[in-house]
Amino acid sequence: MSSEKRIDITQPLWDQSTFVGRFRHFAFISNPLLTFVPEKQLYEARDLYMKYKAGQEPPGTTMAQVIRAKQLYESAFHPDSGELQNVFGRMSFQMPGGCLATGAMLQWYRTATAVVFWQWVNQSFNALVNYTNRNANAPLSTKQMGVAYVSAMTAAMSTALTFKFVIQKRATNPILARFVPFVAVAAANWVNIPLMRQNEILLGLEVTDENGKVIGKSQIAPIKGISQVVTSRIVMCAPGMLLLPVIMEKIEPKPWMQRIKKAHILIQTAIVGIFLTFMVPTACALFPQRCKLSTDTIKRFEKENYEEIVKNTDGKPPKYVYFNKGL
Q: What is the strand order of the sheet 290-294 is part of?
């Protein structure tokens, strides 16, 4: 490949300072079809990615091959550790996994047993996604993962059951019962994700200058990043879990829908899948992946960490530090 055609393979192909650029980037790496790429092909893509990064790609390598290798590598390998991620925890599996769990929660919400079971399924899936996309520089112990999982389950189930029983006793509009899954999922996200990433807050997250050089740590940085991730996850599922109940409440009484009751779960799952196909990259693109934090904030709340940053920058700390917020 000629030198003038080279790209920085470690950087996104689109401008990440704009929502549209971030949307295109996340649509690129969260394409559900990437879930079905064989493991052998993923490792081949990683090899080409690394060789191109080092300027040692095989003669005759085309730009299309480089772009494809970049897409496969960034969709399947952890950005910190470089390890191959569990297929069910990848962002490319968010649509198929999410539509199955969400479709089931929206279909079977009438009994307490169904609510508890499908919240368990959904939170188990969420826990796997959160663990897969954790910051690898702040690993969790088995005990911490267990506590995070049980806490998220408890939050989801208690919220769902409480909301369900309150609605049954006081609400006159039956459609409100269909919103139980969303309320439970939103509440659990505020428990599950922070607990799964608690070590980032307890130990601090590495922060860099504008050029990517590590200059210290911050405990406020992960709080900001995790808050943005939780918000994105809730936005990701909101259209399917808020609009679909309204749609189903309107069409379920129709004679043609009554004739195909067994197909209702398939219809809901398909509609949720359509929503998620667009909402996964939309939600991920709400905030820049490379998050920034003012050093004035660190100076105010983390004096020791600020002093370390000052020391590592020869007394000239930058106005902002940067870090990966996670997904």
A: 214-218, 205-208, 320-324, 290-294
